[in-house]
């Protein structure tokens, strides 16, 4: 019951995590180009990537 609920919430928010992923990637690339530090962007990049891959894996596993 709980895993199904988490799966539905994850599937419905995957576009939001995709946008966060893309925007964070762009900010990291800009900061690398300007040789600035980027630990916060790296954190959000990693979190959004892990959430998206986890949700996609659970969806494909439940088919």
Order of helices and strands: HH
Q: What is the structural class?
A: mainly alpha
Number of strands: 0
Percent helix, as a range, is over 70%
Give a verbal description of the structure.
The longest helix is centred in the N-terminal third of the chain and has 32 residues, at 2-33. Helices cover 87% and strands 0% of the residues. The chain has two helices and no strands. Helix 1 runs antiparallel to helix 2 (39-61). The chain is elongated and about 45 Å long. It has one domain (2-61). It is mainly alpha-helical. It has helices spanning 2-33, 39-61.
Short description:
The chain has 63 residues and is mainly α. It is built from two helices and no strands.
